[in-house]
Amino acid sequence: MKKWLFLLPALCVLSAANVLADSTVIRVGSIHDTSGILGHYGRSMDKAITLAIEDINEQGGLLGKPLKKIAFDTRSDPDLYPELVGNLIAEQVDVVHGAILSSDREAIRQALAAAEVPYFYNTQYEGGVCDRNAFFTGVTPAQQAQILIPEVVQRWGDKIVVVAADNNYGKITARWIEHFARKHGASVLETRFFDLAVSDFNATIKSIRAIQPDMVVSLLIGGAHLSFYRQWAASGVRGKIPLASTTMGAGNEHVALTKDEGDGIMVVYSYSRELDTESNASFLEKWQNRFGNTDDIHELAVSTYQGVHVWAEGVRRAGTLEADSVIASLESGLHINAPTGKLSIDPLTHHAVTTVHLIELDDQKMKVLKSYRDLPPRDTQIVCNLKLNPQDNQQYAISVELYDVLFPQAR
């Protein structure tokens, strides 16, 4: 039985109770792993919600009302997600932002759809979710691996080893890496998957040295997996076999590495603190003034900050908090000027259309080498069209082969 089904009787009562709810504030739900193994990501994401709410309240709130954050810490425990999202629904929140792992997203997404509470998943992920009640502001493989792989193949060579987290993101993204490698004349010699708790990679590194690929592409996740990069440098192979990653730096992990451990790793993200734009400078100043430093800003935090602001713009244009009207407003082609640049919502998939940057880690900074503007979520567009099928509500396994058929001109 789905974890969220136990909430359905309560949802019927809560739906009626919403009519009688105190309407003096707008409630913004935050459900994040602010402690535990994923706490490094979740704490900054929760801070981002605080900052965005304060931004909006300083401008008079929404619909003449202030915003109030209702937050729960899931403590990196997947079993807590269904219970705590039930608490948010009981608090009669008007929107929910949260979750990091795909499994945690799927543990709450259906309950929020049943309760008609719009949901924002502000984390980069493997793509494929099609749900009119949900919105996705993080990058997907078509906005990340599509850029990264041809760039590093051109620079480094055509033989790749992939190391990945043994979860939905790692497995699906590994297929995209293999696809884009093949498309650009390269091949993946081997892919290895690791549980999130694994922290000893010495045997793996020794094996990779024996294979002698032209590069390693890392899809590793979380604090334990950070050990890979330290052990890679300590083994003496750094500088001989270069590294690229779709995950390193998403949680600001590169700041925890020394220059000798991190320099030269190639990544693609929508955000870098080194972006030289007015919108980023303003964001950094606000974060500094509110929290004392900017050391904990990372890709997922910025996506969360932007997720709150794009939702708020949807509410402004709708002129109401009524879920269907807000969703229709978000589908109308609106955009915001965000720290990452222009951000809009693709009406077909509810995923972000965004700018991404080819980045090289350099002395604990993210040096932007190239920028690619207004990239749509082409991978999810293969399987999702909410204009034609507004009742669709599932995560699809995307055919990487179909990608080239539908988007032959894509990189």
Features of the shown structure:
411 residues; alpha/beta; Rossmann fold; 2 domains; 9-stranded mixed β-sheet; 5-stranded parallel β-sheet; 40% helix
Structural write-up:
There is one protein chain. With 411 residues, this protein is α/β, with parallel strands linked by helices. Helix content is 40%, strand content 21%. It has 16 helices and 16 strands. Mean pLDDT is 92; it is low at 1-6 and 8-20.
Briefly summarize what is shown.
This protein has 411 residues and is α/β, with parallel strands linked by helices. It contains 16 helices and 16 strands.
Describe the protein's topology:
Elements: H1 8-17, E1 26-32, H2 39-58, E2 67-73, H3 80-90, E3 95-98, H4 102-115, E4 119-121, E5 129-131, E6 134-136, H5 145-156, E7 159-165, H6 168-183, E8 187-194, H7 202-211, E9 215-219, H8 222-225, H9 227-234, E10 243-245, H10 253-256, H11 259-262, E11 266-269, H12 278-291, H13 299-318, H14 323-330, E12 335-338, E13 341-345, E14 352-362, E15 365-375, H15 378-381, E16 393-395, H16 400-406
Parallel strand pairs: 1-2, 1-3, 3-4, 4-6, 7-8, 7-9, 9-10, 10-11
Antiparallel strand pairs: 5-16, 11-14, 12-13, 13-14, 14-15
Helix pairs in contact: 2-13, 3-4, 5-6, 13-14
Structural class: alpha/beta
State the helical fraction: 40-55%
Per DSSP, the total helix count is 16
What's the total number of strands?
16
How much of the sequence lies in strands comes to 15-25%
How many domains, as an integer? 2
From the N-terminal CA to the C-terminal CA, the straight-line distance is: 42 Å
Give Rg in angstroms: 21 Å
**Biggest sheet, in brief?**
9 strands, mixed
CATH architecture of the largest domain: 3-Layer(aba) Sandwich
Low-confidence stretches: 1-6, 8-20
CATH homologous superfamily of the largest domain, by name?
A: Response regulator
